[in-house]
Design goal:
The chain is α+β, with helices and mostly antiparallel strands and about 280 residues long. It is about 15% helix and about 35% strand. The chain has 6 helices and 19 strands. The longest helix has 14 residues, at about 125-140.
């Protein structure tokens, strides 16, 4: 029999005790549980970054995985602790928008407000509320046994900007990774052949898919690019480049360098594509 799997994503880092004690709590409740650390290095209190990281990686996990997501700047305030079932996966998290991008792709089958115990810290709900709930679910407890069904909706961030205006595709920077690669909302970009990509927006299923040439014109922070590369090594060392990253989103990078610093960009900055259909 497969052992229950709990995947953790937090902004706690690994210097302090927070992650370890959450695992200890969960092992006491569900001794058979296994853990995978997606990351504990989300920038502190950056709910949007966590939403992006979760939404672009959860599908690589086995069906039945319980995701424990604790990026919670509102801990101790009025936000609800929630558990959400989307069918193949269950998510335990604060209701602060951290599940927004997952729920842009999947309508929840059931959402509940977690019933909190009497003896909980006002500052560490990861240990006292979310970890025990994740372990209960991994042990086989049903969501309707964990709390009250939510019928009035969840708190969601707006989807990342992605639209088309007079033939120009307009997106925004949604994440900057450890290497300084600048990830945009323009995705999914799927390779049709060596010179053609297909834009099939992940968060906007209502948008029409469309092919466009790798020689389209891209603009970010005053810089213009006229080619989309396949790999980081396609450009000379130290060169700025555009490419499609591992999560199928358009991104900007520097071969063995930091594109975010070079471009001086931040999350929310605009990105545009003037698509071209013809081959060079």
């Amino acid at each position: 029999m497969n052992r229950p799997l709990i995947a953790m994503l937090t902004d706690f880092g690994i210097k302090d005790h927070y992650v370890g004690v959450m695992k200890g709590v969960m092992k006491r409740i569900c001794p058979a549980a296994e853990f995978i650390d997606i990351t504990h290095d989300i920038p502190p209190q950056d709910v949007r970054a966590a939403a992006y990281m979760l939404a672009t990686n959860y599908m690589y996990f086995p069906e039945g995985t319980v995701f424990l997501v604790v990026v919670d700047p509102g801990v101790g305030l009025q936000r609800k602790p929630i558990a959400v079932d989307i069918g193949d996966y269950t998510f335990v998290a604060p209701d602060n928008g951290v599940l927004s991008y997952v729920l842009a792709q999947h309508k929840p089958l059931l959402s509940v407000e977690i019933t909190e115990g009497d003896r909980i810290s006002r500052t560490f709900h990861g240990r006292d509320v979310f970890a025990p709930t994740a372990a209960d679910i991994a042990s086989g407890e049903k969501l309707y046994e964990i709390g009250a069904i939510i019928s009035d909706g969840l708190n969601l961030y707006p989807k990342p900007q992605l639209k088309e205006d007079k033939g120009i595709i307009i997106g925004e920077v949604i994440y900057i990774d450890h290497f300084g690669n600048v990830v945009t909302s323009i995705g999914d970009c799927l390779w049709l052949d060596d010179e053609t990509l297909q834009l099939k927006p992940r968060f906007y299923p209502e948008m029409n898919s469309r092919p466009f040439s790798v020689y389209s014109e891209l603009t970010i922070a005053g810089e213009t690019f006229t080619e989309i590369n396949r790999t980081y090594g396609d450009a000379p060392r130290g060169s700025l480049m555009a490419l499609v990253g591992s999560n199928d989103f358009l991104e900007f990078a520097v071969n063995q360098g930091n594109a975010a610093q070079r471009l001086d960009v931040k999350v929310g900055d605009p990105v545009t594509i003037i698509p071209k259909q013809e081959r060079r």
